[in-house]
Specification:
Elements: E1 2-10, H1 15-26, E2 31-40, H2 42-50, E3 55-57, H3 67-79, E4 83-87, H4 89-101, E5 107-112, H5 123-136, E6 139-142, H6 145-153, E7 162-164, H7 180-187, E8 194-199, H8 208-221, E9 225-230, H9 236-245, E10 252-256, H10 261-267, E11 270-273, H11 282-289, E12 294-297, H12 302-305, E13 312-315, H13 320-331, H14 334-351, H15 354-380
Parallel strand pairs: 1-2, 1-4, 2-3, 4-5, 5-6, 6-7, 8-9, 8-11, 9-10, 11-12, 12-13
Helix pairs in contact: 3-4, 7-10, 8-13, 11-14
């Protein structure tokens, strides 16, 4: 069994964290996992602890907390971890320092997911990445071509080393046997209305404000269209205030964090994602798996997933007028919407299956663990 350590910010309900949780669950019996959180265990971490998975909070202090690297290195040595998989840059930074402290006694993977906007890296950080940190990584990968190119072009990692391992989702969760009207009755939705939904944390990068402005335009034309917002976050109060100011209080529902996302996605008419920056959104893949037509901003990895005019419609970042027109075109043409939804579903089934993603990561763990054993055998000879 391969001993694998995962390093993240916190096990919140977000893309990278959900991927780690599913990887741990699906590789049970083939890997011996330990999850390290820089900041806090988080709700997903609590669930995994209940399932018997070690989840350790490193208690990061404000600013650069170099003590984390020593604590992480000590735990890795004690648990005899062979492969450390760091998700996102800060976890990789501390894991790389831990590798120095542990004298290179484990293999290190960096996986890049989302990117900041605007995406700016100082020359100093780029130089440290290229000269020091990149050499400490035994493998570098990203969840889409957009993130892979950013690692090379912006962060300074060698492009030839970067592999793309696409995100994947569990397709079985979207094989629902209930009819849409039955799902709506179960969810408390009306059968004679149209529903647009966005599932994302309430964070500036997701730009819910743009979607609310777009829905205000749609609502001025169609009296039968409502918006469902699934998620939570620091901007909830601001978004509720904007909803009132736009006169949308009776047209927008804040559903909070939900555990019935597959059912919600199969009960709606249209999925929207208005992020200013995105990598390979799991909720976008989930919506496509549910055969939903989608309207998404043409940022990050979205155009890699959604083929314009085939699987959905792409709009410019911040352009609420174009987004409103795109939503109206799909809401008013059910045949086009159905065709795009079915095309997107087939695309996800072909390219974005969770079992494929997990197996590719396991192959990487096995390869690195094998190389590590050979290296130590040679050192002893």
């Amino acid at each position: 069994m391969i001993r694998v350590g995962f390093v993240l910010h916190a096990m919140q309900v977000a893309g990278a964290e959900v991927l780690v949780a599913e990887t741990v669950r699906r590789l049970r019996g083939r890997i011996d996992p330990t999850i390290y959180c820089l900041d806090s265990v988080g709700p997903l971490g609590e669930k995994l602890i209940a399932e018997g998975v070690p989840v350790i909070s490193l208690g990061r202090q404000p600013g650069r907390d170099y003590g984390i690297a020593w604590r992480l290195a000590r735990s890795i040595r004690e648990r005899r971890i062979q492969v450390v998989h760091a998700h996102q840059y800060s976890p990789f930074f501390y894991a790389a320092l831990a590798k120095i402290a542990a004298r290179g006694r484990f293999r290190l993977i960096l996986t890049e997911h989302g990117r900041h906007f605007p995406d700016v890296v100082s020359p100093l950080r780029r130089g440290v990445n290229r000269i020091v940190l990149a050499r400490l990584a035994d493998a570098v990968n990203a969840c889409c071509e957009f993130s892979a190119k950013a690692l090379s072009r912006i962060d300074g990692f060698a492009g030839r080393r970067i592999e793309v391992i696409e995100n994947g989702i569990d397709l079985d969760r979207y094989q629902n046997t209930l009819e849409k009207h039955e799902l709506r009755r179960k969810l408390g939705l009306e059968t004679n209305r149209k529903y647009v939904a966005m599932i994302a944390r309430f964070h500036p990068v997701k730009d819910h404000g743009m979607l609310l402005r777009a829905i205000a335009r749609v609502a001025a034309v169609r009296s039968d269209v409502d918006l469902l917002l699934v998620g939570d976050g620091p901007l909830r109060g601001d978004l509720e205030r904007q909803t009132r100011e736009l006169g949308l209080s009776d047209r927008v529902r804040f559903l909070g964090i939900r555990h019935d996302v597959p059912e919600i996605l199969q009960a709606i008419d249209l999925f929207a994602l208005t992020s200013v920056s995105e990598a390979a959104s799991l909720t976008l893949l989930e919506a496509m798996a549910a055969a939903m037509p989608v309207v998404v901003t043409a940022v990050g990895g979205n155009p890699e997933i959604v083929r314009e005019g085939i699987d959905g419609l792409l709009v410019k970042r911040g352009d609420d007028a174009t987004a409103a027109n795109a939503m109206l075109s799909l809401l008013e043409d059910p045949i086009l919407a159905q065709r795009m939804g079915e095309s997107g579903q087939a695309r996800v089934e072909d390219l974005y299956r969770l079992d494929q993603t997990v197996e590719r990561y396991f192959d990487l763990y096995r390869s690195l663990a094998r190389n590590r054993r050979r290296a130590f055998a040679s050192a002893r000879a």
